[in-house]
Every structure is written in structure tokens, then in C-alpha cells.
Specification:
The longest helix is centred in the C-terminal third of the chain and has 33 residues, at 324-356. This protein is 34% helix and 27% strand. It has an eight-stranded mixed sheet. Strands 1, 2, 7, 8, 9, 10 and 16 form a seven-stranded mixed sheet that branches. The chain has helices at 14-25, 52-61, 65-72, 109-122, 167-171, 235-239, 241-247, 299-320, 324-356, 360-372, 377-385, and strands at 4-10, 30-33, 49-51, 78-83, 86-92, 104-106, 126-128, 133-139, 142-147, 152-160, 176-191, 199-204, 213-219, 222-228, 260-273, 283-285, 291-292. The two termini are 39 Å apart. The protein is an alpha/beta fold. The protein folds into two domains: 4-74 and 100-178 and 270-353, FAD/NAD(P)-binding domain; 182-268, D-Amino Acid Oxidase, Chain A, domain 2 (2-Layer Sandwich). The chain is globular.
């Protein structure tokens, strides 16, 4: 089977689906290949927090899409930070205005994908399921992709959005560079029954969890509990049913173990690909195929959607360019801008990781700030902000913003 396409997206996760919508909005011929079957199992909440800027981009791909996702998602209106069980920071936000997008929305990744898949289908873009990529052959004139069952596709460009173990990245000889921490986090999605408080709570050194940090984030229909393991922990033991039954009630309520929707574990990774494009300027990497960050500040998915927008613009310019030099320059600009953003994101996530894995001096500063927070508000604000890293370094937006 062979199809001549302007672009072929590999991966039907949220970033790949966003890229397909962005390409279609620019009137390019596009299709999506996904290794998993269409009825793949629920993979949990994973990335559940979409910034307003990401919602705006999705609205640009399909008018009203960002608003639909925001309306379904949850805008939590309060956040608290506790240190060893004592509250050191609290803030309540005003209700969402009737018009315009909210500052954020919180929903499970499975729900985000559901909205994006519906939009892709409505746009007439084909998603080919159960199509694991076998090879990617890039030349100066285009790209040919073959799947493990022998089918082939031809396209002007390929957008690799096939995750951290990207087959596309490996096929074109690119690699992720960076660090892998010796610690993990265990993520549990819990259905609310009845609906729990719509507030985000971060616990420094939770007294009921032997001093481990834990983050609780509400989403539509439940809450995500993110337990940050010690380097000496066995994450699989904390994630198995018996382990969850031991520690989860200390964070929520005793009945929470009966409402568990999914459990997963993730390592703390800080890696960015050496190049976002291949040597022929025909293959572009985006999302987790290009970068992996420690999960602080919701940088992964939000920067991936920005990648999708910027990659689609680059491919559109390259496809319509009057010369090969201009086409290559457009794709190279994608690499330059999004690589710089990824390195800023890695630095910001690294600052958060350092704060959560502190030296003795850093730990002493945190202890002092927790004592002073009730009388010096800036100390509480500092403890509130630091687990998510500096926002000014995030670089989640595409270059045109």
C-alpha cells in the first residue's frame, strides 16, 4: 500500500493527533500511523494539565476545540502547600469568566485523546491502527515508511511523535541526551465518590508517608495522586495493589483504594534529542520522541503541542517552498526554536528536581521557610512555586507567540 502525502505522522497520542490537526488546518495531505490497536487499554491520566496557551493552539487547529476540552476539563480554583502536615500556603482563584479560555484545565490524557481523535476523524484524516513502524527511509526527495506487516507509505515529511522509545528517532540515527534519575514516581488515578474538593495540594515530606513528597491534582471525575519515591524505594512494590492499599489511604480516605482507576510508574528523565530533524530535513521529531522532562510544571504535553504547531508550520513552508534551500531552512528553523525551548524546559524541570532532591543546605532553607511562612508570606509563596520550576524558562510556546 502506498500513499503520496505531504506529511505522515507517526504516533496517535495527544501530540501526534495535535500535529495531524495542525497539518490539516494548513491544508496539507496527512495521515497518522499508530502501533497500538484502536481499542488500546486506558493508559491512565499521565499528562492531565493543559495550559491556556495549549488550548489556544488547539482552537487554532479546529475552531472551538480548545473550548470543548476546557469545558469538559476541571478548572481547580484552590491550591495549598503543606510542609510535614502543616499548611504553609493557600490561595483561591476567582471563578472562570463566561467568555474566553481558562488559565488551565485538568482532565485525564485518555479524555484529551478522545477529543482529539474525534476532531481528527471529523476532519477526514485517516488514522491507521495496529501499524508499528518497521523502517523509515529518508532522502532529499522525501520519506518512505514501511510497517511490520509490509505496507508502505510515501510522504514529503514525517513527524515522529511516537514517544520516548521512538522508532522514528532510532531509524534516522538520532538519540536522546541527558540524565536518568535514580528515583521514580508512582501515579494513581482515583475516581471521586462523591466529587472531592477542586483543589491542588502539594505535600512536602508527608508525615504519613515517611517524609515522601506527594502531589494531589483534581481532574474531571477524580484526582491524581503522584507519590515521589525515595531513591531507595522499589516503585513496583509501591504500585502493586498491596502497596497502594498501604499508602493511598494516608493521602486521601480509606475508601480511595476501592476507587482506583489506574496505577503507573515513571522514572525521572531529563533528556533532549541532539537534533529535532534528520540530515535530509525530512523527518521532524516532536513531543516525547524529542524530549523527556521530569514531571514538574506540566511541561511534557504542553511543549509537545507547541512542537506540533511549529512542526506543521515548518512542513507547510517547506512543502510550498520555491527552492530546496528555503524548504531546508524552514525545517532547520523548527529545530533551532524547539530545541532551544526543550533545553529551557529541561533546565526548569531540573531546577524543580534539585529542589525536591535537596542538599543539606537546601533542606535547611526549606525547613526555615516552612517555619517562617505563617508570618512571612513570601516564604510560603517560595515553597509553593519551587516544586514546579521557574515558569520564565518553560519555553512551551511556539516561536510565533
Amino acid at each position: 500500500m502506498s500513499e503520496d502525502l505531504d506529511a505522515l505522522v507517526i504516533g496517535a497520542g495527544p501530540v501526534g493527533l495535535a500535529a495531524a490537526l495542525a497539518l490539516n488546518a494548513l491544508r496539507l495531505r496527512v495521515a497518522v500511523l499508530e502501533a497500538d490497536p484502536a481499542d488500546r487499554p486506558d493508559r491512565g491520566s499521565r499528562a492531565l494539565y493543559l495550559h491556556r496557551d495549549s488550548l489556544r493552539l488547539l482552537d487554532g487547529f479546529v475552531p472551538g476545540l480548545g473550548g470543548q476540552i476546557a469545558d469538559f476539563g476541571l478548572l481547580w480554583r484552590a491550591r495549598r502547600t503543606l510542609y510535614r502536615g502543616r499548611q504553609v500556603y493557600a490561595e483561591t482563584f476567582p471563578r472562570r469568566k463566561a467568555n474566553g479560555l481558562p488559565p488551565h484545565t485538568s482532565l485525564r490524557q485518555a479524555d484529551t485523546e478522545r477529543f482529539l481523535r474525534a476532531a481528527v476523524t471529523a476532519a477526514g484524516v485517516e488514522i491507521v491502527w495496529s501499524a508499528p513502524v518497521h523502517s523509515v527511509s529518508s532522502t532529499a526527495g522525501g520519506v518512505q515508511v514501511s510497517t511490520e506487516d509490509g505496507r508502505t507509505w510515501s510522504a514529503g515529511h514525517v513527524l515522529g511523535a511516537d514517544g520516548g522509545r521512538s522508532t522514528v528517532r532510532e531509524a534516522v540515527g538520532l538519540a536522546l541526551d541527558g540524565e536518568r534519575s535514580n528515583a521514580y514516581h508512582v501515579v494513581v488515578d482515583v475516581a471521586d465518590e462523591p466529587a472531592g474538593p477542586a483543589e491542588r495540594v502539594f505535600h512536602y515530606r508527608h508525615p504519613g508517608l515517611a517524609g515522601r513528597h506527594v502531589l494531589v491534582v483534581p481532574f474531571t471525575g477524580g484526582r491524581q495522586v503522584d507519590l515521589q519515591c525515595f531513591p531507595t524505594d522499589d516503585p513496583s512494590a509501591l504500585a502493586e495493589p498491596a502497596g497502594v492499599r498501604r499508602w493511598l489511604p494516608r493521602v486521601l480516605d480509606r475508601a480511595a483504594v476501592d476507587r482506583v482507576m489506574s496505577v503507573s510508574t515513571y522514572p525521572f528523565l531529563q533528556r533532549v534529542t541532539d537534533r529535532f530533524v534528520d540530515g535530509n530535513h525530512r523527518v521532524l521529531l516532536l513531543g516525547e520522541a524529542a524530549h523527556l522532562f521530569a514531571p514538574f510544571g506540566a511541561r511534557g504535553l504542553n511543549s509537545g503541542i507547541a512542537d506540533a504547531d511549529a512542526a506543521a508550520v515548518a512542513v507547510a513552508v517547506a512543502t510550498r517552498a520555491a527552492s530546496g534551500d528555503r524548504a531546508r531552512a524552514a525545517v532547520e528553523e523548527y529545530h533551532r526554536v524547539r530545541s532551544a525551548a526543550a533545553h529551557r524546559n529541561r533546565a526548569a524541570a531540573g531546577a524543580a528536581l534539585s529542589h525536591l532532591r535537596p542538599s543539606a543546605w537546601q533542606r535547611a532553607r526549606q525547613e526555615i521557610a516552612s517555619v517562617l511562612a505563617p508570618v512571612i508570606g513570601s516564604c510560603g509563596s517560595w515553597l509553593e512555586r519551587r516544586p514546579y520550576g521557574p515558569r520564565e524558562l518553560s519555553g512551551t510556546l511556539p516561536s510565533r507567540y
